[in-house]
Amino acid sequence: MAIPKVDLRGLDPSSPGWASARAAVTAAMLENGCVVAACDTLGPELRRALFERAMPELFSFPAETKQRNVSSDAALRGYVGKLAGLDFESFNVAAVTDPSSVRDFSSIFWPRGNPEFCDTVISFVSNLLKLEHTVEKMTLDGLGVREESIAGHRQTLTHSLRLSHYSVPEESKMGVTLPRHTDPSFTTAIVQHEVEGLEVQAKDGSWITIPPEADTITIIAGDLLTVVTNGRVPACIHRVKTASNRERFSVLFTAVAKNGAVLSPMDELVDRDHPLMYNPLKTDEYVVFRYSEEGLKVSNPLEEFCGVHKSGSSTE
Ligand SMILES: O=C(O)CCC(=O)C(=O)O
Ligand SMILES: [Fe+2]
Asked: Residue 218 is part of which domain span?
C-alpha cells in the first residue's frame, strides 16, 4: 500500500486539473489524514543549501547556544533536545512567515548575520505556505466547506518551522527514532531529504513507508484538523523509522493555532448524518494536556479532552 501522490505543480483553482487533484487530495486526507504532494516548493539548490549546509552547521553548535532558541509563545515551540531517551533534537522558529522571526533565529547562531541562511528559509517558507494553503483549501472545499469559512479558519492559524535531526538509531530500537504519535497541530508539511524515515499507519494497523523523494512533500493532518472537520479527517498516525540506520534531517512546516484560539467543528460539517463530535477546544490548554502525565497515558487524548461522546458518557 502507498499513500496517494497528487501532482500539484502549476495548479490553481482556475486550472483544468484542479477538480481532479482536489478529489484525490480530499480522498487521501479522509483515508489516512495524509497526502504526498508532488510540487516544486523546494528546488534542488534550496534543498542543498538547507539540508547539506545550514542544518549540519546548526546542529553542531554547543548545547548552550542551541538552548537559546526559546519561544515565549507556547510550550514546545523552541529547541527540544534529546528528550526522554529519544535520539532526536529539533529547533523551532515560531511565527515563521514573518521574515523578522527567521532573522532573530539566525542571529542566535550567527550574530553578524547569515543572509544566505535567512534568504533560503524565507523563500522556502513562502513556498510552503502556498502549498499548505492549496492542500487545506482542496481538503475543506472537497468536504463542502464554504469559501468564507475557509477564510475565517485561516485567521486562527500561525505557522512554525521545525528543523529536526535524528542521530543514528540505537540497535535496540529497531530503527524507530520517533515513536507512533499524532501531531497537536492543524497540518504538518514534512520535508525529507535522502534518508528514509517517515511512516504512516493505515487503518488496518500496517505501516506505510513514505519514500524521501526530492520532488515531494508530505502533508499530514493533526488533531486540530480533526476537530474543525468534525472528525471527518483523521489525525495522521505516524512515526519515524530509519531502517538503514543513518543520521537523518527533516524539516516540518506546521500550521498551529494562534495563542488563545478556541476551535469548534465547522458549521457545514455538522448535520444529521454527522452529529457534533467535539466541544469547543481551547488549543493552549489542549497542548498542555497532551503532554501532561495524564494526556500521555490515554490512547486518544483528543477524545478525552473534548469529545462530545466522552463528556456525554461521563455521567454514567
Ligand atoms: O521527521 C519526520 O519525518 C517526522 C517528524 C514528526 O513526526 C514530528 O516531529 O512530529
Ligand atoms: Fe509528528
From this structure: 5-282
Query: Which domain CATH number covers 246?
Result: 2.60.120.330
CA angle centred on 122, ends 117 and 125, rounded to 5°: 120
- Residues (pLDDT < 50) of the chain are 312-316
**311 is a domain residue:** no
Q: How far is the CA of 240 from the centre of ligand 1 (A)?
A: 6
Ligand 1 lining (C-beta closer than 6 Å): 164, 178, 183, 190, 192, 197-198, 238, 240, 250, 252
Instruction: Give the global pTM.
Output: 0.95
In tens, the pLDDT along 154-192 reads 999 999 999 999 998 777 778 888 999 999 999 999 999
In the chain, the number of structural domains is 1
Atom of ligand 1 nearest to the CA of 162: 9
Identify whether the C-beta of residue 232 lies closer than 8 Å to the C-beta of residue 143: yes
Residue 117 lies in a domain: yes
Closest CA to 111 of 179, 65, 57: 65
Residue 202 CA, ligand 1 centroid: distance in Å: 17
Q: Residue 292 falls within a domain, yes or no?
A: no
Instruction: Decide: helix, strand or coil at residue 253.
Output: strand
CB-CB contact of 67 with 90 (8 Å): no
Nearest CA to ligand 1 atom 7: 239
Dist. CA 315 → ligand 2 center (Å) = 34
pLDDT at site 315: 39
